[in-house]
From TrEMBL:
<feature type="binding site">
    <location>
        <position position="99"/>
    </location>
    <ligand>
        <name>Zn(2+) 2</name>
    </ligand>
</feature>
<feature type="region of interest" description="Disordered">
    <location>
        <begin position="137"/>
        <end position="157"/>
    </location>
</feature>
<keyword id="KW-0106">Calcium</keyword>
<dbReference type="GO" id="GO:0004222">
    <property type="term" value="F:metalloendopeptidase activity"/>
</dbReference>
<dbReference type="InterPro" id="IPR001818">
    <property type="entry name" value="Pept_M10_metallopeptidase"/>
</dbReference>
<dbReference type="GO" id="GO:0030198">
    <property type="term" value="P:extracellular matrix organization"/>
</dbReference>
<dbReference type="GO" id="GO:0008270">
    <property type="term" value="F:zinc ion binding"/>
</dbReference>
<dbReference type="GO" id="GO:0005615">
    <property type="term" value="C:extracellular space"/>
</dbReference>
<dbReference type="InterPro" id="IPR018487">
    <property type="entry name" value="Hemopexin-like_repeat"/>
</dbReference>
<keyword id="KW-0645">Protease</keyword>
<feature type="compositionally biased region" description="Polar residues">
    <location>
        <begin position="144"/>
        <end position="155"/>
    </location>
</feature>
<feature type="binding site">
    <location>
        <position position="59"/>
    </location>
    <ligand>
        <name>Zn(2+) 1</name>
    </ligand>
</feature>
<keyword id="KW-1015">Disulfide bond</keyword>
<dbReference type="GO" id="GO:0030574">
    <property type="term" value="P:collagen catabolic process"/>
</dbReference>
<feature type="repeat" description="Hemopexin">
    <location>
        <begin position="207"/>
        <end position="251"/>
    </location>
</feature>
<keyword id="KW-0378">Hydrolase</keyword>
<feature type="binding site">
    <location>
        <position position="44"/>
    </location>
    <ligand>
        <name>Zn(2+) 1</name>
    </ligand>
</feature>
Amino acid sequence: MSKDKVRRVLQEALRVWSDVTPLTFAEVHGGRADIIIDFTRYWHGDNLPFDGPGGILAHAFFPRTHREGDIHFDYDESWTVGNSMGTDLLQVAAHEFGHVLGLQHSLEPGAVMSPFYSFSYPLELSEDDRRGIQHLYGPRRSNPPFTGTETNEIPSTPDACRTNFDAVSMIRGELFFFKSGYVWRIRDGRLQPGYPALASRHWKGIPESIDAAFEDKSGNIWFFQGDNYWVYDAERQITGPDSVRSLGLPVANIQAALMWGEDKEKIYFFKEGSYWRFSSVENRVVDAHPRSMHDWRGVPRNTDAAFQDQHGFAQFFSGQQYWKFDPVELRVLEGYPRNVGEDFFGCVSSGNP
Protein backbone atom coordinates (compact mmCIF):
# COMPACT_ATOMS: atom_id res chain seq x y z
CA MET A 1 0.00 0.00 0.00
CA SER A 2 1.48 3.35 -1.04
CA LYS A 3 2.23 6.12 1.46
CA ASP A 4 -0.42 8.35 -0.14
CA LYS A 5 -3.03 5.63 0.17
CA VAL A 6 -2.11 5.02 3.81
CA ARG A 7 -2.49 8.76 4.45
CA ARG A 8 -5.95 8.80 2.83
CA VAL A 9 -7.06 5.75 4.85
CA LEU A 10 -5.92 7.35 8.10
CA GLN A 11 -7.78 10.55 7.22
CA GLU A 12 -10.92 8.51 6.58
CA ALA A 13 -10.51 6.71 9.92
CA LEU A 14 -10.31 10.07 11.72
CA ARG A 15 -13.39 11.26 9.86
CA VAL A 16 -15.37 8.39 11.41
CA TRP A 17 -15.01 10.19 14.77
CA SER A 18 -15.13 13.81 13.57
CA ASP A 19 -18.43 13.15 11.76
CA VAL A 20 -20.20 12.65 15.12
CA THR A 21 -18.30 15.10 17.35
CA PRO A 22 -17.04 18.72 17.21
CA LEU A 23 -13.50 17.38 16.75
CA THR A 24 -11.45 18.42 13.74
CA PHE A 25 -8.17 16.91 12.59
CA ALA A 26 -5.41 18.36 10.40
CA GLU A 27 -2.07 16.88 9.38
CA VAL A 28 0.96 18.87 10.54
CA HIS A 29 4.52 18.61 9.22
CA GLY A 30 6.32 20.37 12.06
CA GLY A 31 5.92 21.45 15.65
CA ARG A 32 3.75 19.67 18.18
CA ALA A 33 1.17 17.07 17.17
CA ASP A 34 -1.57 15.60 19.37
CA ILE A 35 -1.51 12.25 17.55
CA ILE A 36 1.70 10.66 16.25
CA ILE A 37 1.46 7.61 13.98
CA ASP A 38 4.23 5.14 13.23
CA PHE A 39 4.57 1.81 11.42
CA THR A 40 7.24 -0.24 13.15
CA ARG A 41 8.39 -3.80 13.87
CA TYR A 42 9.09 -6.07 16.84
CA TRP A 43 10.86 -4.18 19.70
CA HIS A 44 10.43 -0.47 19.07
CA GLY A 45 11.07 1.33 22.34
CA ASP A 46 7.82 1.14 24.28
CA ASN A 47 8.10 -2.32 25.91
CA LEU A 48 5.16 -3.51 23.79
CA PRO A 49 6.86 -5.44 20.98
CA PHE A 50 5.06 -6.57 17.85
CA ASP A 51 5.13 -10.22 16.80
CA GLY A 52 5.24 -10.28 13.00
CA PRO A 53 2.22 -11.11 10.79
CA GLY A 54 -0.94 -11.86 12.76
CA GLY A 55 -1.27 -11.55 16.52
CA ILE A 56 -0.85 -7.97 17.71
CA LEU A 57 -1.89 -5.58 14.94
CA ALA A 58 -1.41 -2.18 16.58
CA HIS A 59 -1.56 -0.35 19.90
CA ALA A 60 -2.26 3.17 21.10
CA PHE A 61 -1.69 5.22 24.23
CA PHE A 62 -4.54 6.86 26.11
CA PRO A 63 -4.77 10.55 27.01
CA ARG A 64 -2.88 11.58 30.18
CA THR A 65 -0.38 8.71 29.88
CA HIS A 66 3.37 9.13 29.34
CA ARG A 67 3.03 8.55 25.55
CA GLU A 68 -0.44 9.96 25.04
CA GLY A 69 -1.48 10.25 21.41
CA ASP A 70 1.05 7.72 20.03
CA ILE A 71 -0.25 4.99 17.71
CA HIS A 72 1.97 2.15 16.48
CA PHE A 73 1.00 -0.22 13.66
CA ASP A 74 2.80 -3.51 13.01
CA TYR A 75 4.70 -2.95 9.76
CA ASP A 76 4.72 -6.70 9.01
CA GLU A 77 0.94 -7.05 8.71
CA SER A 78 -0.57 -7.50 5.26
CA TRP A 79 -2.43 -4.20 5.33
CA THR A 80 -5.30 -3.69 2.91
CA VAL A 81 -8.51 -1.68 2.80
CA GLY A 82 -12.08 -2.52 1.86
CA ASN A 83 -11.64 -6.29 1.56
CA SER A 84 -10.96 -9.32 3.72
CA MET A 85 -7.81 -10.49 1.91
CA GLY A 86 -5.53 -9.01 4.58
CA THR A 87 -5.87 -6.83 7.68
CA ASP A 88 -8.12 -3.86 7.02
CA LEU A 89 -6.17 -0.71 7.89
CA LEU A 90 -9.29 1.47 8.04
CA GLN A 91 -10.91 -0.78 10.65
CA VAL A 92 -7.79 -1.01 12.83
CA ALA A 93 -6.94 2.70 12.51
CA ALA A 94 -10.44 3.79 13.51
CA HIS A 95 -10.18 1.51 16.57
CA GLU A 96 -6.78 2.89 17.62
CA PHE A 97 -7.88 6.50 17.06
CA GLY A 98 -10.76 5.74 19.42
CA HIS A 99 -8.22 4.77 22.08
CA VAL A 100 -6.06 7.90 21.72
CA LEU A 101 -9.27 9.93 22.00
CA GLY A 102 -9.99 8.23 25.31
CA LEU A 103 -12.30 5.31 24.52
CA GLN A 104 -11.99 1.93 26.23
CA HIS A 105 -13.09 -1.32 24.57
CA SER A 106 -16.76 -1.87 23.88
CA LEU A 107 -18.66 -5.02 24.85
CA GLU A 108 -21.06 -4.55 21.92
CA PRO A 109 -20.38 -7.15 19.17
CA GLY A 110 -19.40 -5.54 15.89
CA ALA A 111 -18.51 -2.19 17.46
CA VAL A 112 -15.47 -0.35 16.12
CA MET A 113 -14.13 -0.41 19.69
CA SER A 114 -14.67 -4.14 20.13
CA PRO A 115 -11.48 -5.76 21.52
CA PHE A 116 -11.50 -8.32 18.70
CA TYR A 117 -10.63 -7.50 15.11
CA SER A 118 -13.29 -8.37 12.56
CA PHE A 119 -13.59 -7.13 9.00
CA SER A 120 -16.70 -5.03 8.39
CA TYR A 121 -17.53 -3.14 5.21
CA PRO A 122 -18.54 -0.37 5.06
CA LEU A 123 -17.10 0.87 8.37
CA GLU A 124 -19.79 2.28 10.65
CA LEU A 125 -19.85 3.27 14.31
CA SER A 126 -22.14 1.26 16.56
CA GLU A 127 -24.52 3.06 18.89
CA ASP A 128 -22.16 2.25 21.76
CA ASP A 129 -19.22 3.79 19.86
CA ARG A 130 -21.25 6.91 19.18
CA ARG A 131 -22.48 7.28 22.76
CA GLY A 132 -18.96 6.78 24.11
CA ILE A 133 -17.23 9.40 21.97
CA GLN A 134 -20.07 11.91 22.41
CA HIS A 135 -19.91 11.42 26.17
CA LEU A 136 -16.30 12.62 26.01
CA TYR A 137 -16.58 15.40 23.43
CA GLY A 138 -20.27 16.07 22.86
CA PRO A 139 -22.26 15.68 19.62
CA ARG A 140 -21.36 17.38 16.39
CA ARG A 141 -22.71 20.91 16.20
CA SER A 142 -25.80 21.11 14.02
CA ASN A 143 -25.84 23.13 10.81
CA PRO A 144 -27.53 26.55 10.80
CA PRO A 145 -31.32 26.40 10.41
CA PHE A 146 -32.58 25.99 6.87
CA THR A 147 -33.97 29.26 5.55
CA GLY A 148 -34.89 28.19 2.03
CA THR A 149 -38.31 27.40 0.59
CA GLU A 150 -40.17 24.53 2.22
CA THR A 151 -41.85 21.88 0.09
CA ASN A 152 -44.13 18.96 0.84
CA GLU A 153 -42.12 16.59 -1.37
CA ILE A 154 -41.18 13.28 0.21
CA PRO A 155 -38.96 11.13 -2.00
CA SER A 156 -40.37 7.65 -2.38
CA THR A 157 -38.19 4.57 -2.03
CA PRO A 158 -38.56 2.15 -4.95
CA ASP A 159 -40.27 -1.15 -4.14
CA ALA A 160 -37.83 -4.00 -4.76
CA CYS A 161 -40.75 -6.32 -5.53
CA ARG A 162 -42.02 -4.14 -8.38
CA THR A 163 -39.06 -2.33 -9.86
CA ASN A 164 -36.47 -2.94 -12.52
CA PHE A 165 -32.99 -2.13 -11.23
CA ASP A 166 -30.49 0.30 -12.76
CA ALA A 167 -27.45 -1.83 -11.88
CA VAL A 168 -26.47 -4.91 -9.88
CA SER A 169 -22.93 -5.69 -8.74
CA MET A 170 -21.06 -8.10 -6.49
CA ILE A 171 -18.88 -5.91 -4.24
CA ARG A 172 -16.60 -7.40 -1.58
CA GLY A 173 -18.57 -10.64 -1.81
CA GLU A 174 -21.92 -8.93 -1.17
CA LEU A 175 -24.64 -8.20 -3.71
CA PHE A 176 -25.70 -4.58 -4.26
CA PHE A 177 -28.82 -3.57 -6.21
CA PHE A 178 -29.08 0.07 -7.38
CA LYS A 179 -32.16 2.06 -8.28
CA SER A 180 -32.81 5.84 -8.43
CA GLY A 181 -30.13 6.80 -5.91
CA TYR A 182 -30.93 3.91 -3.52
CA VAL A 183 -29.03 0.70 -2.84
CA TRP A 184 -30.08 -2.69 -1.44
CA ARG A 185 -27.39 -4.82 0.19
CA ILE A 186 -27.66 -8.62 0.29
CA ARG A 187 -25.26 -10.76 2.30
CA ASP A 188 -25.50 -14.57 2.38
CA GLY A 189 -28.83 -14.36 0.58
CA ARG A 190 -30.42 -11.98 3.11
CA LEU A 191 -31.26 -8.30 2.78
CA GLN A 192 -29.27 -6.45 5.45
CA PRO A 193 -30.96 -4.28 8.12
CA GLY A 194 -31.15 -0.59 7.25
CA TYR A 195 -31.58 -1.16 3.53
CA PRO A 196 -32.56 0.20 1.09
CA ALA A 197 -30.36 3.20 1.86
CA LEU A 198 -29.08 6.12 -0.17
CA ALA A 199 -26.15 4.98 -2.31
CA SER A 200 -24.37 8.23 -1.41
CA ARG A 201 -24.12 6.89 2.16
CA HIS A 202 -21.46 4.52 0.86
CA TRP A 203 -20.05 6.42 -2.09
CA LYS A 204 -20.05 10.20 -1.70
CA GLY A 205 -20.25 11.93 -5.06
CA ILE A 206 -21.91 9.02 -6.85
CA PRO A 207 -24.50 10.23 -9.42
CA GLU A 208 -28.13 10.05 -8.32
CA SER A 209 -28.84 7.25 -10.76
CA ILE A 210 -26.35 4.95 -12.47
CA ASP A 211 -26.44 2.90 -15.65
CA ALA A 212 -23.99 0.15 -14.67
CA ALA A 213 -21.46 -0.89 -12.02
CA PHE A 214 -18.77 -3.51 -11.47
CA GLU A 215 -15.87 -4.32 -9.12
CA ASP A 216 -12.52 -4.92 -10.83
CA LYS A 217 -9.77 -7.38 -9.92
CA SER A 218 -8.04 -4.93 -7.58
CA GLY A 219 -11.26 -4.25 -5.68
CA ASN A 220 -11.99 -0.83 -7.20
CA ILE A 221 -15.64 -0.11 -7.91
CA TRP A 222 -16.64 1.46 -11.24
CA PHE A 223 -19.90 3.35 -11.78
CA PHE A 224 -21.25 4.51 -15.14
CA GLN A 225 -23.84 7.13 -15.92
CA GLY A 226 -24.47 8.71 -19.30
CA ASP A 227 -21.19 9.83 -20.87
CA ASN A 228 -19.15 9.46 -17.68
CA TYR A 229 -17.68 6.99 -15.22
CA TRP A 230 -16.42 7.15 -11.62
CA VAL A 231 -14.00 4.83 -9.78
CA TYR A 232 -13.93 4.27 -6.00
CA ASP A 233 -11.48 2.50 -3.73
CA ALA A 234 -13.93 1.16 -1.13
CA GLU A 235 -15.78 4.37 -0.18
CA ARG A 236 -13.11 6.82 -1.39
CA GLN A 237 -13.47 8.36 -4.83
CA ILE A 238 -10.34 7.87 -6.97
CA THR A 239 -11.47 9.53 -10.17
CA GLY A 240 -14.51 10.88 -11.94
CA PRO A 241 -16.46 12.04 -13.58
CA ASP A 242 -14.34 11.06 -16.58
CA SER A 243 -15.56 10.51 -20.12
CA VAL A 244 -16.17 6.93 -21.22
CA ARG A 245 -14.52 7.97 -24.50
CA SER A 246 -11.19 7.94 -22.64
CA LEU A 247 -11.73 4.18 -22.27
CA GLY A 248 -12.14 3.82 -26.02
CA LEU A 249 -15.85 3.12 -25.62
CA PRO A 250 -17.68 4.57 -28.65
CA VAL A 251 -21.10 4.81 -26.96
CA ALA A 252 -22.62 6.41 -23.88
CA ASN A 253 -25.43 5.20 -21.59
CA ILE A 254 -24.25 1.59 -21.38
CA GLN A 255 -26.92 -0.67 -19.94
CA ALA A 256 -24.81 -3.18 -18.01
CA ALA A 257 -21.23 -4.04 -17.05
CA LEU A 258 -20.01 -7.52 -16.18
CA MET A 259 -16.76 -8.71 -14.59
CA TRP A 260 -16.58 -12.38 -15.56
CA GLY A 261 -14.19 -15.31 -15.31
CA GLU A 262 -12.03 -16.96 -12.65
CA ASP A 263 -9.20 -14.48 -13.16
CA LYS A 264 -11.60 -11.52 -12.89
CA GLU A 265 -9.95 -9.93 -15.90
CA LYS A 266 -12.79 -10.34 -18.42
CA ILE A 267 -14.95 -7.23 -18.34
CA TYR A 268 -17.83 -6.58 -20.72
CA PHE A 269 -20.03 -3.57 -21.45
CA PHE A 270 -23.51 -4.10 -22.89
CA LYS A 271 -25.91 -1.87 -24.81
CA GLU A 272 -28.91 -2.56 -27.08
CA GLY A 273 -27.93 -5.97 -28.40
CA SER A 274 -24.20 -5.24 -28.60
CA TYR A 275 -21.25 -5.71 -26.25
CA TRP A 276 -17.61 -4.64 -25.93
CA ARG A 277 -14.69 -6.40 -24.18
CA PHE A 278 -12.70 -4.14 -21.82
CA SER A 279 -9.06 -4.72 -20.87
CA SER A 280 -8.34 -3.81 -17.25
CA VAL A 281 -4.61 -4.01 -18.01
CA GLU A 282 -4.70 -1.44 -20.82
CA ASN A 283 -7.70 0.40 -19.35
CA ARG A 284 -9.38 0.45 -22.76
CA VAL A 285 -11.90 -1.55 -24.74
CA VAL A 286 -10.17 -4.25 -26.78
CA ASP A 287 -12.02 -3.34 -29.97
CA ALA A 288 -14.25 -0.31 -30.54
CA HIS A 289 -16.30 -2.36 -32.98
CA PRO A 290 -19.18 -4.03 -31.07
CA ARG A 291 -20.01 -7.71 -31.08
CA SER A 292 -23.50 -9.17 -31.12
CA MET A 293 -25.40 -10.39 -28.05
CA HIS A 294 -26.09 -13.56 -30.04
CA ASP A 295 -22.79 -14.79 -28.55
CA TRP A 296 -24.60 -14.93 -25.18
CA ARG A 297 -27.16 -17.57 -26.12
CA GLY A 298 -30.51 -17.02 -24.46
CA VAL A 299 -29.68 -13.64 -22.90
CA PRO A 300 -32.17 -10.88 -23.87
CA ARG A 301 -31.04 -8.21 -26.30
CA ASN A 302 -31.60 -5.38 -23.81
CA THR A 303 -30.24 -5.89 -20.31
CA ASP A 304 -30.54 -3.58 -17.29
CA ALA A 305 -27.75 -5.13 -15.20
CA ALA A 306 -25.38 -8.08 -14.87
CA PHE A 307 -23.04 -9.68 -12.33
CA GLN A 308 -21.07 -12.88 -11.74
CA ASP A 309 -22.18 -14.93 -8.75
CA GLN A 310 -19.94 -16.88 -6.37
CA HIS A 311 -20.34 -20.05 -8.47
CA GLY A 312 -19.13 -18.41 -11.68
CA PHE A 313 -22.52 -18.01 -13.36
CA ALA A 314 -23.26 -14.70 -15.06
CA GLN A 315 -26.69 -13.33 -14.19
CA PHE A 316 -28.43 -10.85 -16.50
CA PHE A 317 -31.39 -8.65 -15.55
CA SER A 318 -34.06 -7.16 -17.75
CA GLY A 319 -37.19 -5.64 -16.27
CA GLN A 320 -38.29 -7.73 -13.30
CA GLN A 321 -36.74 -10.95 -14.63
CA TYR A 322 -33.25 -12.42 -14.66
CA TRP A 323 -31.38 -15.09 -16.63
CA LYS A 324 -28.53 -17.31 -15.39
CA PHE A 325 -25.78 -17.96 -17.95
CA ASP A 326 -23.68 -21.16 -17.80
CA PRO A 327 -19.92 -20.41 -18.19
CA VAL A 328 -19.25 -23.94 -19.50
CA GLU A 329 -22.14 -24.50 -21.89
CA LEU A 330 -22.15 -20.79 -22.81
CA ARG A 331 -25.92 -20.54 -22.77
CA VAL A 332 -28.76 -19.68 -20.41
CA LEU A 333 -29.76 -22.46 -18.02
CA GLU A 334 -33.09 -24.24 -18.34
CA GLY A 335 -35.87 -22.77 -16.20
CA TYR A 336 -34.99 -19.13 -16.82
CA PRO A 337 -36.00 -16.33 -16.77
CA ARG A 338 -37.12 -16.12 -13.15
CA ASN A 339 -38.56 -13.29 -11.06
CA VAL A 340 -36.04 -10.96 -9.41
CA GLY A 341 -38.25 -9.91 -6.50
CA GLU A 342 -39.18 -13.44 -5.54
CA ASP A 343 -35.68 -14.95 -5.72
CA PHE A 344 -33.60 -12.10 -4.27
CA PHE A 345 -36.01 -10.26 -1.95
CA GLY A 346 -38.50 -12.94 -0.91
CA CYS A 347 -41.42 -11.17 -2.56
CA VAL A 348 -44.72 -13.03 -2.85
CA SER A 349 -45.87 -13.66 -6.38
CA SER A 350 -48.99 -11.73 -7.34
CA GLY A 351 -49.82 -14.24 -10.05
CA ASN A 352 -52.57 -16.83 -9.81
CA PRO A 353 -51.59 -20.39 -8.85
